[in-house]
Amino acid sequence: MICGASLPLWQGGVWIPFTMGLASSLHCLGMCGGVMGALSMGVTAPGAGARPALGRLLLLNLGRLFSYALLGALAGLLGAGALSMIDLSAARHAMVVLAAGVVVAVGLNLLGLLSRIAGIERIGAVLWRHLQRPWRRLVPIKSAWGALLAGMIWGLLPCFLVYSALLWSMAANAVSAGCFAMLAFGAGTLPITLTVGLFSHRVLDGVAVGSLQKGLGVVMIVLGLVTIVNLGMPPEQHIH
């Protein structure tokens, strides 16, 4: 359960961050394609075969998922600490409603109906400025450790979808649940990031990316609204 509410992990705790992850990878492909392109070329050393390139690519993404899991655990710890001071079920429900409301807002943003939300990425811009120097030293990637470290830094890249997933992890109200939610988010990013890393971004054209983003936007709006509606219903009447 999340925040004491009758919300099983599979009913929102996993699918919401997983869908956010899918949307995040598409957002990165459309808006930050240069980063994906640099990483894509960085894992393929001149004269190397597909096996070492694939190995570095997997380590790169493993490092990124490690950063997500760590951030999720910290968010879950923060949420648990904040809510432990307020022993009210209403406060717990409010945090889930807030997180679900952000999910709906992100869905609207993906549909092009709420453009200002992307400005939240400026929050992490200061941190990213400090991380750019070690990032540039690691790319192009020349070793397995370099791939892992570059992936960990990549996981800290400013992105409003990452922040939204972290808010959902905070609402999980536990270290393990927050960590698991961010791992689900990371898993959602893998289909696109691995495809781009192996075959380049040309596999997906602009039309395909735009259509997928809109489709995921609708899914996120539905998941967010279902979460909010279920909070006000007895467990036997929950929408599955």
3D structure, described in words:
The protein is mostly helical and 240 residues long. Helix 1 runs parallel beside helix 8 and helix 1 packs antiparallel against helix 9. The longest helix has 35 residues.
SSE inventory with pairings:
Layout: H1 15-31, H2 33-42, H3 50-84, H4 89-110, H5 125-138, H6 144-154, H7 160-171, H8 175-199, H9 206-231
Helix pairs in contact: 1-2, 1-7, 1-8, 1-9, 2-8, 3-6, 3-7, 3-8, 4-7, 4-9, 5-6, 7-8
Could you give a short description of this structure?
By secondary structure, this protein is mostly helical. Helices cover 72% and strands 0% of the residues.
Give the helix level as a range of percent: over 70%
Rg result:
18 Å
The geometry reads as globular
Number of strands: 0
Note the total helix count. 9
Sheet bearing the most strands, described?
none
How far the N terminus sits from the C terminus, by CA atoms, comes to: 15 Å
Seen as an oligomer or otherwise, the chain set is single chain
Can you write the helix and strand succession as a string?
Answer: HHHHHHHHH
Output the structural class.
Answer: mainly alpha
- Proportion of β residues? under 5%
Mean of the pLDDT scores?
Answer: 75
Taking pLDDT < 50 over at least 5 consecutive residues as the criterion, the unreliable ranges are 1-11
